[in-house]
Amino acid sequence: MLLLAFDTATPAVTVALHDGAHVLAETTTVDARRHGELLASSIDAVLTEAGAGRLDITAVAAGTGPGPYTGLRVGLVTARVLGSALGVPVYGVSTLDVIAADAAAAAGGREFIVATDARRREVYWARYDATGRRLDGPAVGIPADVAETIAARQDAPGSQGAPGGPGILAAGTGALLYPGVLGQPIEPSYPAAGTLARLAARQFAAGAPGTGAEPIYLRRPDARVPGPPKRVTVP
Amino acid sequence: MTTPLAPLVLGIETSCDETGAGLVRGHELLADSVASSVAEHARFGGVVPEVASRAHLEAMVPAVDRALATAGVTLADVDAIAVTAGPGLTGALLVGVSAAKAYALALGKPLYAVNHLAAHIAVDQLEHGALPEPAIALLVSGGHSSLLLARDIAGDVQPLGATIDDAAGEAYDKVARVLGLPFPGGPPIDQEARGGDPAAIAFPRAKYRDQTLDFSFSGLKTAVARWVEDRRAAGASVPVADVAASFQEAVADVLTRKAVQACRANGVDHLVIGGGVAANSRLRALAAERCEAAGIRLRVPRPGLCTDNGAMVAALGAELVARDAKPSLLDVGADSALPVTSVLV
Ligand SMILES: [Zn+2]
User: Fold this and answer.
1) Contact residues on chain B for A70, CB-CB shorter than 8 A
2) How far, in whole angstroms, is CA B262 from its chain's centroid?
3) Chain B: nearest CA to A112, how far in angstroms?
């Protein structure tokens, strides 16, 4: 098998090829404004690096966000078109889950959150147990409110957050963007396509049908229904 | 021995609220599939960029599949992919550009990232054959109002004039709102105007006698709103048909006068009209009348090809392929303000 995976839901454009056992090639570029320019050429680059051709691809995986919409859609439309044009299944994996899969090691046996930049002074977040299993979210919120919510849940009976402990561990850039508000930053800041590929390759190997590339938006489009036309003459 | 078929070009358009996928061979239109999100914007009284972009993501692959089915071809038959790189709404453009790159990658075929305005001109070749060069183009829609000189549709298009404020289509939308007509305003105003007197109200025609080829529709829009408000304030009913006809007459008068002026100033005797407002019946009639009088050959594609669609992008792509233009690179970006002088990016 040859699985092509990519994520564009954060400032990172990350692309990898996976053969079911290993990551064959991986490239990540952090540039919040150039997703549309970087993705296709990065795909081309990993194929070349792995010595593979477009027709060797047997599955596609894409990070489905949540993340800033314009970048997110660059990845999702690319996944949908590649799936359609190559006739291969497409798997969608939440971007926060991809970050969590790598963060579990850094969390050292404690539960943690993943928080990424949602702009407008908000973060996208989800809460995970020590093994990287999602407990809450994904959701979007103001950092201080998110911290309050997490603190309350970590203190709940049966949770792993110890009252009076060192507080929230947070992967993703959220804790870096809001220092002292969202807890203690842990690695990684961005999703790695190699990890996304590993998660999706398991589904593909198990014969799971493609899940498609459905965006996780979490917010409605900004649009207000206008009132009656404004008067141009002064009454 | 049969002549080899011209290359099959897939055109993708997502610059505003229409998701277009068209298939063209040379000057032959094989399929034109358009999914519009206009109904989702109607209650907002204008195109909401994020709503348009979400709709493009959902409509993209189905639109291409429909075009392929209509043309009776498969993706394997496609020889090149063309896509609108700008001008337009950035988020919307990026859906189409990304999709086009993915098709190019998956099919191993060249990509042509092209200018939306030049595509509005090139589409006429699908209906009226090879475009005479040079030609003047008048492009009018909700997003653009401009006069262009096309010396070479594949490489040399120069701006002559443009609106300095609102696009003509925008003025239609705003006047429709004042009159209580639905969005988009073009079709209902055209409909109402049929029963009205175009000379009933003397609305202003900005920049009518100046030497520039620029337009201004903001003052006209305000004048209509003021007239309607005064009328309502006086307790009188508003003669919607007369207002619509008089407003439409002012728009068509200015646009056609400037278009003829552009032809004369440049010694060009071919005029192409495109864009959504080119579907307007009064604009078409007045343009025909004035071009006839001025000895100018008028070319206006049928309304379905005037509005944004994928066939126009494929038509320009086919022209570029025919002229052996160098394909775009995979790292080409979308440019919301792409100048018309950049026909191919
Ligand atoms: Zn247009």
Assistant:
1) 53, 90-91, 94
2) 19
3) 32
Q: Strand, coil or helix: what is A60?
A: strand
What is the domain extent for residue B84? 8-123+309-322
- Chain A residues touching B332 at Cβ < 8 A: 37
Q: Is residue B130 part of a domain?
A: no
Same domain flag for B108 and B72: yes
- Going residue by residue through chain B, which has 345 residues, state the pLDDT in tens, using 9 for 90 and above: 556 789 999 999 999 999 999 999 999 999 999 999 999 998 888 899 999 999 999 999 999 999 999 999 999 999 999 999 999 999 999 999 999 999 999 999 999 999 999 999 999 999 999 999 999 999 999 888 999 999 999 999 999 999 999 999 999 999 999 999 999 999 999 999 999 999 999 999 999 988 999 999 999 999 999 999 999 999 999 999 999 999 999 999 999 999 999 999 999 999 999 999 999 999 999 999 999 999 999 999 999 999 999 999 999 999 999 999 999 999 999 999 999 999 999
B-chain CB neighbours of A235 within 8 Å are: 233
Tell me: ipTM over 0.90: yes
In a domain, B337, yes or no: no
Residues B173 and B237 occupy one common structural domain = yes
**Is the same domain home to B285 and B317?**
no
What CATH number is associated with residue B66? 3.30.420.40
Looking at the fold, whether B40 and B153 belong to one and the same domain comes out as no
Mutate to test the interface with B, among A38, A55, A74, A76 (most CBs of B within 10 A): A74
| Statement to judge: residues B170 and B243 lie in one domain | yes
Residues B152 and B294 both lie in one domain:
yes
Q: Nearest residue of A to residue B89 by CA position? A: A70
Q: Is B230 exposed, middle or buried (0-12, 13-18, 19+ CB in 10 A)?
A: exposed
Q: Has residue B149 been placed in a domain?
A: yes
pTM for the predicted model, two decimal places: 0.95
- Nearest CA to B247 out of B146, B178, B162, B307 is that of B178
My answer on whether B108 and B213 are in the same domain is no
Strand-strand pairing, A184-185 and B18-25: unpaired
**Cα A142-A143-A147 angle, rounded to 5 deg:** 120
Tell me how many domains chain B contains: 2
Say if residue B139 is in the same domain as residue B73.
no
Closest-approach residue (CA) in chain A for B65: A84
Chain A (80-119) residues lying within 8 Å, Cβ to Cβ, of chain B: 80-82, 84-86
Strands A12-18 and A3-7: antiparallel
DSSP A98-139: HHHHHHHHHHTTS-EEEEEE-STT-EEEEEE-TTS-EEEEEE
